[in-house]
Amino acid sequence: MKTDSTTPKATDWHRKPPCAGVCLLCGCPGKQPGEHRRVSDDGALYPRFEKRSKGPDGWRLKTIDTAPKSARPKIIKKQNPRRPTPGPTQKTRERMATALRMKIIQGKTIAEIADELGFTSEVFHYWRRNYGALYDEIETKLTNEVIGWVRQAVGTDAILESTDLYMARALTAEKWCQAAEVPLFPTTEETTLCSFYETYYLPTCLYGASESTLGLYRGVLKRWKLLTGDPPLRSIDVALLAKFRDALSKMRGMEKWQRAAPSSVATTLRHVQTLLDKAGPPGRRNRDAAGLIETVPWVRQPRSEPREVHLVDPAEIDAVYLAAVGMERPRIEGLQPAKWWRALLVTVWNTGLRRRSLLELSWDMVDWKLRLFRIPGRSMKAKRFQIQPFPEMVASHLHAIRRSEHGLIFPWSGHIRDFHTKWCQLLDLAGIPAERHFGLHDIRKTLATTLWGSDPQAAQFVMGHSSSTVTARHYVAQTGIVARAVDAIPQPASFGAVTPEELVNV
């Protein structure tokens, strides 16, 4: 287009020349009715334009920006200020203080508090979200009160009045002290039972121990610290051990209405006594003792009677075997869950291996020619190498799930609690009532009882016990074996000469 002195500039108001597409004068894109002009510099990468049109109330202006959205400056919209939350009423303050006192001082759960006070558990979250400062203030005040009370009651007769309530307060106090990085109980430079475990017993006596063993010791020492305050070794006497034993006996068991089982209390005391023995003087049967105390205190453990052995009926095993078709876990590529569960069931029924040993079995432990497992000590509870034969039935089921030459035979990617949940689901699918539910250990005891009837030594070896006493006391259902033996007692001829009717009429 030719330009002369009468032709407007690109930055002057002008109308678009008759043409299609952009304006030939300024480059403004699109259809632009009315007048427009360029408002950016000549060398601008993304020019901007302005157009105007006549309206009833004057000129109307509009800006046209050719820059992409990513190159445009971001416009931060001013947000409307949030309305302030009104402060809690006096009734809310009182309810909050009452609920927190029940939670921290009385050791009740949120569900119990909500049920007693007549509101839902969501109220706690509402208080924390809207009245956080007041909530923290009340909680801190009550927690400091609990910490002071626990420090006064630890190791005294006060822990025996209500051991469950004391433990609930002690756990709360310990949590807050850990967050504040302050000790719950006074520290000492002398060696305590907990410090002796960390500095001597753990590296010296627990070399190569399994994680379950280490976790058991950690749990025992935590209860010891919260109930006794972890005094120095020289301050531990028979009276303190007796008080610790009595407090353990008064703690709740698996159910709220139960107390701790005597066997559980005995197990805790046995581990504490082991640590004390190792802190005592060395001797012929205690060569690695540290010799930190001259006389080792000892307290009698509660008597515990062995539980009755629960034998699993073969008909129940049949039902579980058939019900495995309804299982959906574990999800292993190329392997049906039913085959996995059936192979596991057949293996434990014929070998009696513990759950941990089963889940750690690998294909390189199998000797197909001799039909046996060569299980290293790391996979056994006693840490001893074991050779475990198995029949042809086990071999056929293992071949059905064999997918490679290496790896685990029974891989389980989830947590062990998930395994227990799925096992109970399998028993439910089999139609076994809840009161008749059994575990893999019950199948192990059933095998021990079966083998003991024909060869007690074979039962001991299969169970992996160092003594047949352990097998007979805890794994063998003696009722059936003794009953068969009693029925085989020879009877004198005179005992049978009189009929039962004649005995009644004598």
Short recap of the structure:
The chain is an alpha+beta fold and 506 residues long. The chain is built from 20 helices and 7 strands. The protein has 4 domains: 14-68, no CATH class; 90-180; 193-279; 314-439, Intergrase catalytic core (hpI Integrase, Chain A), CATH 1.10.443.10.
Question: Which keywords apply here?
Answer:
506 residues; alpha+beta; 4 domains; four-stranded antiparallel β-sheet; three-stranded antiparallel β-sheet
Question: Can you describe this structure?
Answer:
This protein is an alpha+beta fold and 506 residues long. Helices cover 47% and strands 6% of the residues. It has helices spanning 90-104, 110-117, 122-130, 132-153, 158-161, 163-180, 193-205, 211-228, 238-250, 262-279, 314-323, 337-351, 355-359, 392-401, 416-429, 440-454, 456-463, 468-474, 478-487, 500-505, and strands at residues 14-15, 35-38, 48-55, 58-65, 366-367, 372-375, 386-389. The strands form two sheets. Strands 1-2-3-4 form a four-stranded antiparallel sheet, with no helix packed on it. Strands 5-6-7 form a three-stranded antiparallel sheet, with no helix packed on it. Helix 11 (314-323) runs antiparallel to helix 12, helix 12 (337-351) packs parallel to helix 16 and helix 16 (440-454) runs antiparallel to helix 17. It is elongated. It starts with 13 loop residues before the first strand and ends with a helix.
